[in-house]
Design goal:
alpha/beta; 42% helix; 15% strand; globular; binds adenosine-5'-triphosphate; binds magnesium ion
Length: 282
């Protein structure tokens, strides 16, 4: 069975594509067979990331790892019902093309689209990167301005709740493991960091997600896109950016920590041997 990992958050710019790319490369480096689906049919940032990686690999003669890329066709039917039916078929086809893979990583757009909702129903694991800001928190839960207490779930949590319900109704075995990842953590804004941490701890118990350690706010993430590289590719002799600073080393540790906290099923590599631990290889 292919384990489906969905990167989702209705809030735009929270780090879904960046995290998807790092998860794909970490799993590939651990010897797993990995497929990738870009559901952001407008921006296509994950697709562009892989295109840049391909070009960089050819230009530098560098042997880089790639996932199996499965495309979902855009749907241009006017009727809402027909278009939803067509999208359901298109996503099912894209997923079945990845049947031989241990993992399928799906990058969702930062909006509540029909395709995104469908992907959430297929998810075994949802990773939700979240900027360390109460503006982003508002998509998970509402905070009462008077008491400062959480007053109830919000738009994206309701979407995940709905996906969990629908999955149970379809009889798909297993439940959805939801992991929230704090992103762009600041080294200086200690007060905000602490308050966000407290609210997220409180919320995780109420609406059923686990909290991963998170990624710091680092310029390197913004610089890697044009070469298609990830932090896990750096350090080799052809690498344009050397893994030299403490910040880069810490960033890699953060990625390893995320992969470890996902508790993914141990995959078997092509030669029939147990794949090495994704954490050790990352
Ligand atoms: N930890 C980080 N530190 C610094 N910059 C980051 C970090 N994570 C992501 N970014 C940057 O933030 C921007 C948004 O990231 P990304 O495109 O991954 O978000 P997204 O959730 O996929 O956005 P969208 O909703 O538009 O698809 C990018 O410029 C990316 O390079
Ligand atoms: Mg994106």
């Amino acid at each position: 069975m292919t384990h489906v990992i969905v990167l989702g958050n209705e809030k735009g710019g929270s780090g879904k594509t960046t995290t998807a790319m790092h998860v794909v490369i970490a799993l590939l480096k651990s010897g797993c067979r990995v497929g990738a689906i870009d559901l952001d049919l407008r921006q296509r940032s994950l697709t562009r990331y892989f295109e840049n990686r391909r070009k960089f690999s050819e230009l530098k003669g560098k042997d880089l790892c790639f996932p199996v890329i499965s495309e979902v066709e855009a749907c241009s039917i006017d009727s809402r019902e027909d278009s939803m039916r067509q999208e359901t078929e298109n996503l099912a086809a894209a997923l079945s093309a990845l049947e031989g893979c241990d993992f399928a990583v799906i990058d969702c757009p930062g909006a509540n689209t029909h395709l995104s909702r469908l992907a959430h129903i297929h998810a075994d694991t949802i990773i939700t990167p979240l900027n360390d800001s109460f503006v982003d928190f508002d998509l998970l839960a509402r905070i009462d301005p008077e008491t400062g207490r959480i007053s109830g779930p919000s738009l994206y949590s309701e979407m995940v709740w709905d996906a969990r319900k629908r999955r149970a109704m379809t009889g798909v075995p297993g439940s959805i493991d939801w992991v929230v990842l704090r992103n762009r953590l600041s080294a200086t804004r200690a007060n905000n960091k602490k308050r966000m941490g407290e609210k997220l701890d409180d919320l995780s118990a109420r609406i059923g997600f686990r909290l991963a350690r998170g990624f710091g706010d680092r310029v390197i993430y913004r610089e890697l896109f044009p070469t298609g590289l990830t932090l896990l590719d750096l350090g080799g002799k052809d690498s344009p950016v050397r893994l030299s600073t403490m910040s880069h080393v810490t960033a890699r540790l953060e990625i390893r920590s995320l992969i470890a906290s996902l508790n993914l099923p141990r995959a078997v590599s092509k030669d029939g041997q147990d794949a090495p631990d994704a954490v050790a290889a990352a």
